[in-house]
């Protein structure tokens, strides 16, 4: 035994309660995952489950559990997962799914879905003093549902959490009194949540590329101010996307997606608006899947932000719903003119969480379907994307005129 492992963080309680130690400060930078020496396995004789992650160096980390559904979440600053399929790490009967990826900028995350409630019994990161390589070991043991629920929840820790967002300002109606229309583009998914994955392409990446191009097209057209809910391959929660739109005082919110369909072939762009009752089963399933993506990214949905809840929908009170419908109709028209092609039922609705702003007209555009080979080719083609972007620009310009006219009628 020439290797002597130095245990630097022995127990969780110390990690959660104490300020950064000198050793923790010495950690940092980007660690690479050594997949060959990493695994989640069950211990013999039902003595629980073990998580072993081999990293090229030590990095600050934390672990916690979440309920509904039961999940284990590991955060790092920062781990390069190296394109390793997280399913290959999972050799445990107690874990149903594993997801890895970027969370926020500078954060990496692993989320494991637990088959039964389990508690973290031991956790520690050890460093090899010769190579500097690190090994994280967690031991999980079964626990009862009550104990699990009582312990679950992301720790409030200023070293990891973002500062509280600024209060919501009431947005003034824009784009009609000579000032530019403020557009919030929302490239779907990102980071630990790749969205649809098909033919080596991810929805998250394609929509980030498309959003950047669409932003350029709108800025070149003039009359638009454009922000994006994410500029990189990072995770943003559905509520975080709504907040970003409010913080930017956006006039319209466009969520951009290219999902895959579980069954059947879909062709042509579809524009979705928010409704309590979905227009059809496929739309309901799509909205549900987007909510589930937040769960798989390790989001604690039990801790809803009151401030965000305050800006969520109240369809009966506000005129946002008809304005969103008008926006969706104008976008379908613009896209059909520009690309010659939309879905045979291009206007649909469902309970999409990301569209629940009470005061910002919001739509979700399925630019194309990644699971349809021709659409995948389209989405990869810059010329096709330019046509789609022009269609959305035209749709926004049409809507602006119509909405201003309707606003005049509404005021009478
Ligand atoms: Zn999507």
Which descriptors would you attach to this protein?
412 residues; alpha/beta; Immunoglobulin-like; Aminopeptidase; seven-stranded mixed beta sheet; 10 helices; binds zinc ion
Short description:
The chain has 412 residues and is an alpha/beta fold. It is built from ten helices and 19 strands. Helix 4 packs across helix 10 and helix 8 runs antiparallel to helix 10.
Task: State the separation between the terminal residues, measured CA to CA.
Answer: 85 Å
User: Which regions have little confidence, pLDDT < 50, spanning 5+ residues?
Assistant: 1-26, 164-172, 305-317
CATH architect. name of the largest domain:
3-Layer(aba) Sandwich
Shape: elongated
| Class by alpha and beta content | alpha/beta
How many β strands by DSSP?
A: 19
Are any ligands bound, and if so which?
A: zinc ion
The CATH topology of the largest domain is given as: Aminopeptidase
- CATH class term of the largest domain: Alpha Beta
